[in-house]
Amino acid sequence: MDTDVSLIFTAKSPPGVPKSAVRVVLSEDYNRIILPEHEEHVDEIWNKRLEKNPSLYNGSKFRLHSVKENSQSVTFCLGLTDYKQFQTTNWARNADELLQLGLKDFGSSQAYMSDPLGVGAFVLTADEFVVFIRRSQRVGEAAGLWDIPGGHPEPGEVNGGSSKLQDIIMANLDPSDVVKEIFQSTLNEIRDEVNIPLEHLSEPVLMGVGVNHTSSGRPSSEYFVKCSLSSKEVKRLYHEGGAEADESSSLKLVPLKEIASLSSSSMWNEMSPSGKGCILLYNSLQADVR
After folding, report:
1. What is the DSSP string of 67-99?
2. Contacts (Cβ under 8 Å, ≥6 apart) of 187
3. Rounded Cα distance, 242 and 84, in Å
4. What letter does residue 167 receive in the DSSP assignment?
5. Exposed, middle or buried, 201 (CB in 10 Å: 0-12/13-18/19+)?
6. Model pLDDT, residue 289
7. Bridge partners, 226 (sequence order)
8. Per-residue pLDDT tens for 225-258?
9. For residue 110, what is the DSSP state?
10. pLDDT over 80 (residue 288)
11. With contact defined as beta carbons under 8 Å apart, do 132 and 231 qualify?
12. Distance in angstroms (rounded) separating the CA atoms of residues 160 and 169
């Protein structure tokens, strides 16, 4: 297993778990725990991040506390966080210390971490190529690395939500609407980053969840999505540019038959942890049917 990423949940069978079998439980108990002595330095850390990258935006996010599974469904236990908390905990200089304190104080290394839930997509074209993008230098993490299309579900897109964490009333968020947002955000990220229209994308299927150890255990849920367009058509659309074209610098289309051995290729060393997690999940699921 790659040291950059580990898998905390894998679907039982390919292609994965459909939206109808995914549940969400929302609770303030699933928010990160505040460590007062660290909180004194949060604004200072964030302002330094902004100086280096003015394009960063402090939007609200869902915090993944845990994933629970039974024979009929998978449940995401979610709190709330924001991008500022992510940058100032998971990416803090003393992140290792925060992980150790969480384990010592609460029996969980993630107790003091923001851990915003990410989404990523294994996009398969009609002629069986997998879509990768190289992240640009303006993004907040994994700059310059090959990745899958992805991002975050947004509380602000859910009825009663807001882009500002302080404005969100958790009781106003309907769990079923949050599930819809998680799956829809996966499709929206493909559309915005690769410029593939939504009508050419299948409903995502949850393959599993990985955690990124280069960002202190930040979680990302990964989905399988079929695209009805050919690789040539996808390449054309990408070069026309989408809403988030500035978040990547190039496109790579890898034949599906090469995905099983991707972890031993030169490309693997240039991939983001979330991208690696997505590939590991896909290969793990396919191993069950080989």
Report:
1. EEE-SS-EEEEEEEEEHHHHHHHTTSTTHHHHH
2. 121, 198, 201, 204, 225
3. 26
4. G
5. buried
6. 53
7. 124
8. 999 999 999 999 999 998 888 989 999 999 999 9
9. T
10. no
11. no
12. 7
Strands 118-124 and 218-226: parallel
- State whether residue 124 is helix, strand or coil: strand
Tens-place pLDDT, residues 183-202: 999 999 999 999 999 999 99
Q: Give the pair of three-digit tokens for residue 192.
A: 């915005």
What span, in angstroms and rounded, lies between the C-alpha atoms of 33 and 261?
Answer: 40
Q: β-pairing, 60-69 with 22-26?
A: unpaired
DSSP 8-state secondary structure symbol assigned to residue 263: G
- Rounded Cα gap, residues 8 and 208, in angstroms: 8
Specify the pTM: 0.95
Categorize the per-residue pLDDT at 175 as very low, low, confident or very high, splitting at 50, 70 and 90. very high
Tokens encoding 46:
């964030």
- The pLDDT tens digits of the residues spanning 147-171 come to 999 999 999 999 777 789 999 999 9
Q: Which amino acid is at 145?
A: L
pLDDT at residue 96 in the model: 97
Residues 6+ apart with CB under 8 A from 203: 18, 19, 183, 225
